[in-house]
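User: For my dataset I need records formatted as: sequence, then C-alpha coordinates, nothing else. Please produce one.
Assistant:
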Amino acid sequence: MAVFMLLEWDGVTKEQYETVRRTVNWEGNPPKGGKFHVAAFTPKGLRVTDVWESPEDFQDFVEKRLMPGTKEAKIAGEPHVEVLPAHAVFAPAYRPL
Protein backbone atom coordinates (compact mmCIF):
# COMPACT_ATOMS: atom_id res chain seq x y z
CA MET A 1 0.00 0.00 0.00
CA ALA A 2 1.40 3.44 -0.96
CA VAL A 3 2.14 5.89 1.82
CA PHE A 4 2.28 9.67 2.02
CA MET A 5 5.18 11.13 4.01
CA LEU A 6 5.22 14.70 5.31
CA LEU A 7 8.46 15.98 6.86
CA GLU A 8 9.03 19.28 8.66
CA TRP A 9 12.61 20.05 9.68
CA ASP A 10 13.07 23.49 11.19
CA GLY A 11 16.43 25.16 10.73
CA VAL A 12 17.46 23.27 7.58
CA THR A 13 18.73 25.62 4.87
CA LYS A 14 18.54 25.32 1.10
CA GLU A 15 22.31 24.85 1.05
CA GLN A 16 22.12 21.93 3.52
CA TYR A 17 19.30 20.34 1.51
CA GLU A 18 21.36 20.62 -1.68
CA THR A 19 24.36 19.04 0.08
CA VAL A 20 22.21 16.08 1.17
CA ARG A 21 20.64 15.88 -2.28
CA ARG A 22 24.08 15.51 -3.89
CA THR A 23 25.47 13.19 -1.22
CA VAL A 24 22.51 10.81 -1.04
CA ASN A 25 21.91 11.08 -4.82
CA TRP A 26 18.29 9.91 -4.76
CA GLU A 27 17.77 11.30 -8.27
CA GLY A 28 20.74 9.49 -9.83
CA ASN A 29 20.21 6.34 -7.77
CA PRO A 30 16.49 6.23 -6.94
CA PRO A 31 15.65 4.41 -3.71
CA LYS A 32 13.54 1.27 -3.83
CA GLY A 33 9.89 2.21 -3.43
CA GLY A 34 10.33 5.96 -3.87
CA LYS A 35 7.56 7.32 -6.11
CA PHE A 36 7.45 11.10 -5.67
CA HIS A 37 9.43 13.79 -3.85
CA VAL A 38 8.91 17.53 -3.55
CA ALA A 39 10.79 19.92 -1.26
CA ALA A 40 9.94 23.48 -0.27
CA PHE A 41 11.17 26.03 2.25
CA THR A 42 9.34 28.22 4.72
CA PRO A 43 10.91 30.89 6.93
CA LYS A 44 11.26 28.11 9.54
CA GLY A 45 13.00 25.52 7.36
CA LEU A 46 12.51 22.50 5.12
CA ARG A 47 9.21 20.87 4.22
CA VAL A 48 9.10 17.64 2.18
CA THR A 49 6.26 15.57 0.76
CA ASP A 50 7.00 12.08 -0.56
CA VAL A 51 5.03 9.12 -1.84
CA TRP A 52 6.48 5.65 -1.18
CA GLU A 53 5.33 2.16 -2.14
CA SER A 54 5.44 1.13 1.52
CA PRO A 55 6.44 2.41 4.95
CA GLU A 56 9.19 -0.22 5.00
CA ASP A 57 10.77 1.19 1.82
CA PHE A 58 10.73 4.67 3.33
CA GLN A 59 12.28 3.48 6.61
CA ASP A 60 15.01 1.56 4.77
CA PHE A 61 15.92 4.71 2.80
CA VAL A 62 15.96 6.82 5.97
CA GLU A 63 18.21 4.44 7.91
CA LYS A 64 20.65 3.45 5.17
CA ARG A 65 20.94 6.61 3.08
CA LEU A 66 19.17 9.73 4.32
CA MET A 67 20.33 9.93 7.93
CA PRO A 68 23.99 9.28 7.06
CA GLY A 69 23.69 12.09 4.50
CA THR A 70 22.15 14.51 6.98
CA LYS A 71 24.91 13.76 9.49
CA GLU A 72 27.52 14.46 6.83
CA ALA A 73 25.81 17.81 6.09
CA LYS A 74 25.87 18.59 9.84
CA ILE A 75 22.11 19.09 10.04
CA ALA A 76 21.11 19.54 13.67
CA GLY A 77 18.00 18.33 15.43
CA GLU A 78 15.37 15.88 14.32
CA PRO A 79 12.56 16.26 11.80
CA HIS A 80 8.88 15.93 12.53
CA VAL A 81 7.64 13.15 10.23
CA GLU A 82 4.15 11.84 9.54
CA VAL A 83 3.56 8.72 7.44
CA LEU A 84 -0.02 8.05 6.40
CA PRO A 85 -1.71 5.61 4.02
CA ALA A 86 -2.08 7.35 0.65
CA HIS A 87 -5.68 7.74 -0.41
CA ALA A 88 -4.98 9.09 -3.92
CA VAL A 89 -1.93 10.14 -5.92
CA PHE A 90 -2.25 12.37 -9.00
CA ALA A 91 0.61 14.08 -10.85
CA PRO A 92 -0.24 14.03 -14.58
CA ALA A 93 1.84 16.95 -15.83
CA TYR A 94 4.87 16.90 -13.56
CA ARG A 95 8.14 17.80 -15.23
CA PRO A 96 11.33 18.42 -13.26
CA LEU A 97 12.21 22.09 -12.77
